[in-house]
Write a structure and sequence with these properties.
heterodimer; A: 50 residues; 3 helices; 0% strand; B: 818 residues; alpha+beta; 6-stranded antiparallel sheet; 28 helices
């Protein structure tokens, strides 16, 4: 079970990473308009048409 | 595409095809019908750019494009002036070519619009990036100014049917954006942290049942603590701050006991971790923080939504004005300047259909103004030289000059905006009664915990602190503090899906006690727009011919009376040839057809043409009379009225069944009021009331101890709304009315009042159940904890279970929402 002494600190590093990325995404404005992206998947295939 | 099935509708805007039909040929060779040149141009542009997916994915139809489509970029040349660039464009590099600006775009209805704009602009040479925010209708555009200029961007947007406005983010909006981001980060941090700590907690629980080496146990506790501490410091800030301020002002708020409990539980867990004895509650702390933050976040979103209405309106304010220089009352020079550069005393010229940029005095002889934005009155008002005109209202006459008296923050419109901001700041979703009760209960718990600790200390026990804290943990106000807000949040969200925006949640508590309900007439019980009620034919012509003639005369006029005829022409598919007409201010329209002069308009104006004496035209229902005549005879009279909504009668009857007395309280002094009251069976009528008188009437009833409710739509109702216990405004009402009211009926369906009443009852029931459950649980568990018998892990499970029950119970309010 000694392995958890390594794995748990690792998970904390990942936690910090996740929170950092999350904060970056919000500050980048990615969550400012939640409605648009729900439909983006329907509209973005335009480039394939041509 | 849906439009093909409806061949008699315009492909672009789905208006019925009246008059000349234009055609656009699409890729497959199909002829698409268009109602006007404007729609044709827009559709052609969209199709030739290969952006036809717009038509598949839009969910709201665009407005008719009409002919105010400008595709020539030279029309926007004035936007390239250094003054405009300085004010609205950020130039980011040395060579002054890399520009960025944020434009407010009028006409974004759906996500497909956002997609269309982004793709259109990105196709242009020189556009570096474009991001459209569908929610607040802003486009942030970066471009290379040596290739493309601001005027080209305006022209391109115009060609696909959108009108752009220069804009700077308003303070309120920046504020909303910042708080929204901050709360989202808090919520995310609390959520991620909760998941991690719970993972550790599972290890600890498993250990408690199956045995665990104390070194691992200690390790898991330490890790939980290290995750919880920073999260606690960051996420709990709003609660602790609130509690601190309340304490300073000697008020008891929910946040105070929450903070005390949070800190106490944290302390207990810290001690347990450091001294290797007792239980840790880090997972409970994180979960509690997450749910509280989630509740606050949802609450905040609802609040922000209500300010969007006003923000949109303020963004339609012109960002530029044409400043003129006068010498001996003659215009010698005119220049487009940003609105911020205007000063009191400046003279600006405002052309037809433009919005006044500031409050000012009219210098030209006379004009008509659409003030519906401020007053809700749909008929244009006449303004003569020297009269005051307000920023935000729309100029309908010929070009006029205005001398500015008030600018920026001093204007009437902005003072309303400030009022709203204040109201938004002060308001929180909570239920005062339940809140106070919960606060007292928690205060009681704190006292009991303190006494318990003291008694155990006196009796010489070393466990006194641990036992006192365990009382707190068992009686943790998690469930109790979630009981009310979660029920209110769910109810408010459900109601907003049905078209009712609750701005102040006390509606849900007080509605059942209402005794008197006051209704405004115009725009509330009635539709608030003119409709043709009756035609009286005075000639030998058929009614159809007469209607056609009237529609032809009115087709080019921008006035509510003319709009009545224009919509008839649209419905009946009249094919109307264009006609040269002359519009007389506040009187009517004159035109010559085949050598014969016709007039339509006010009785006096038409009778003048026949040189007939001004006969008295009276209608018992006091409807508006419009005459049509030529030089020799009177052809017909049209009776126009503002019709009563079909749902009004139903609502009035329902109110009466619930023993709520409906009362008509209106500023209208005409006989139409009595007629409406009669039709609806309203017995008490107050008519011809000024805003202050309305307020006095409400006050009279409240002073007698009756609960009152006001439903209105105009700014003149807003003072009365403040005085009433509950107030609703209509979605089509003025901004001031919406701001003053407790709830906005977005789709103008009065029967929603009944829905709110039902929900109010249901919500009260749920809140009561939640309170009984959480208090009952706490009361049962506390004596056991006081005696020091509580198994720690049982306390934690009980606490979490209690919160979950409360949440699930509140979610029952969503039933029947979707």
């Amino acid at each position: 079970m000694e392995i958890i002494m390594f794995l748990i600190p690792m998970s904390m590093v990942i936690l910090i990473l996740v929170i950092t990325i999350f904060c970056w995404a919000i500050k980048d404005g990615q969550y400012d308009d939640i409605d648009k992206h729900a439909k983006a998947i329907l509209l973005d295939d335009m480039n394939d048409d041509r | 595409m849906t439009a093909r099935a409806l061949m008699d509708l315009c492909f672009h805007c789905h208006q019925p095809l009246t008059g000349e039909v234009y055609f656009v040929t699409d890729k497959s060779g199909e002829q698409l019908p268009m109602c006007c040149i404007g729609c044709k141009v827009v559709t052609e542009t969209i199709l030739t750019l290969g952006l036809n997916q717009f038509y598949q994915y839009r969910d709201v139809l665009p407005k008719q494009a009409l002919s105010d489509i400008n595709i020539n970029s030279s029309d926007y040349e004035s936007f390239n002036s250094p003054e405009i660039y300085q004010q609205y464009v950020d130039i980011t590099d040395e060579a002054k070519t890399h520009c960025q600006s944020t434009l407010f775009i009028e006409g974004i209805n759906c996500t497909a619009c956002a997609w269309l704009i982004e793709n259109r602009l990105l196709q242009m040479d020189g556009i570096l990036s474009c991001q459209v925010n569908y929610t607040n209708q802003f486009a942030t555009i970066e471009w290379n100014n040596s290739i493309i200029q601001l005027s080209d961007i305006f022209a391109a947007l115009s060609a696909i049917g959108y009108k752009a406005h220069l804009s700077q983010l308003l303070d309120l909006e920046k504020n909303i954006k910042a708080t929204n981001r901050k709360s989202l980060i808090r919520l995310g941090v609390a959520g991620f942290g909760m998941m991690q700590v719970m993972m550790m907690a599972i290890g600890l629980y498993a250990g408690a049942f199956n045995g665990i080496e104390s070194s691992y146990r200690s390790f898991l506790q330490w890790v939980s603590m290290m995750i919880t501490l920073p999260i606690f410091v960051y996420v709990s800030q709003p609660f602790i701050k609130n509690a601190y301020f309340a304490l300073k002002h000697k008020r008891l708020v929910m946040d105070l006991p929450i903070s005390i409990a949070l800190v106490a539980i944290l302390l207990q867990s810290l001690l347990a971790t450091l001294y290797h004895q007792g239980e840790v509650y880090f997972d409970s702390i994180c979960m509690f923080l997450f749910f509280l933050t989630l509740g606050r976040y949802l609450e905040m979103r609802a609040r922000h939504k209500s300010s969007e209405v006003l923000l949109k309106l303020m963004k339609l304010m012109p960002s530029t004005a044409t400043k003129v220089t006068l010498v001996n009352n003659k215009v010698v020079d005119q220049k487009l300047v940003p609105i911020e550069q205007l000063q009191v005393g400046d003279v600006v010229s405002v052309t037809e259909k433009q919005t006044f940029p500031a409050d000012g005095l009219l210098m030209s002889e006379a004009t008509t103004v659409n003030e519906s934005m401020l007053t809700g009155e749909f008929l244009p008002k006449k303004r003569i030289k020297g009269d005051l005109v307000s920023a935000g209202t729309i100029q309908l006459g010929q070009k006029v000059l205005v001398k500015i008296t008030k600018i920026g923050g001093q204007t009437k419109l902005m003072s309303i905006a400030r009022l709203l901001e204040k109201a938004q700041r002060d308001h929180k979703i909570q239920s005062p009664i339940a809140d106070r009760f919960a606060s007292y209960f928690i205060a009681f718990v704190l006292v009991i915990a303190a006494i318990t600790g003291f008694v155990w200390f006196q009796s010489g026990s070393e466990r006194w602190l641990e036992i006192a804290l365990s009382v707190l943990v068992v009686a943790c106000p998690c469930a109790l503090s979630l009981a009310t807000p979660i029920a209110l949040t769910v109810a408010i969200n459900t109601l907003s899906k049905k078209g009712l925006l609750i701005l102040k949640s006390h509606i849900l508590e007080n509605l059942s006690a209402v005794k008197y309900c006051f209704f405004d007439k115009t725009g509330t019980l009635t539709k608030g727009q003119l409709l043709l009620d009756e035609i009286v034919n005075h000639s030998s012509m058929s009614e159809e011919v007469i209607l056609k003639l009237a529609c032809q005369l009115e087709q080019m006029v921008s006035h509510p009376v003319a709009h009545v005829f224009q919509s008839i022409a649209g419905k009946k598919n009249f094919d109307l040839p264009l006609l040269k007409t002359q519009h007389f201010l506040n009187a009517g329209v004159e035109a010559t057809i085949n050598g014969k002069t016709y007039r339509i308009g006010k009785p006096d104006f038409v009778l003048q043409l026949q040189k007939a004496s001004s006969k008295l035209f009276r209608d018992p229902q006091n409807r508006m009379i419009i005459l049509l005549g030529d030089q020799t005879q009177m052809i017909a009279s049209f009776y126009l009225s503002d019709q009563i909504r079909s749902v009004s009668e139903k609502v009035i009857n329902w109110l009466r069944n619930r023993k709520i007395e409906p009362i008509l309280l209106t500023g209208d002094g005409s006989k139409a009021v009595d007629y409406a009251a009669d039709r609806l069976g309203i017995k008490t009528v107050y008519k011809d009331q000024s805003p202050e008188q309305k307020y006095q009437v409400i006050k009279k009833y409240s002073d007698q101890g009756f609960k009152t409710m006001v439903v209105g739509d105009g700014s003149n109702d807003s003072i009365a709304m403040g005085a009433a216990d509950i107030s609703f405004s209509m979605g089509t009402g003025t901004v001031l009315a919406k701001t003053a009211s407790d709830g906005v009926i977005l789709n103008d369906d009065l029967s929603l009042i009944k829905t709110v009443a039902d929900y109010s009852e249901k919500t009260q029931k749920i809140i009561r159940q939640n309170m009984i459950w959480s208090i009952g649980y706490n009361l049962l568990a506390m004596p056991v904890a006081i005696l020091g018998w509580v198994e720690p892990f049982v306390a934690v499970i009980g606490m979490s279970f209690s919160s979950i029950i409360v949440t699930v119970n509140a979610l029952r309010l969503r039933k029947g929402a979707d």
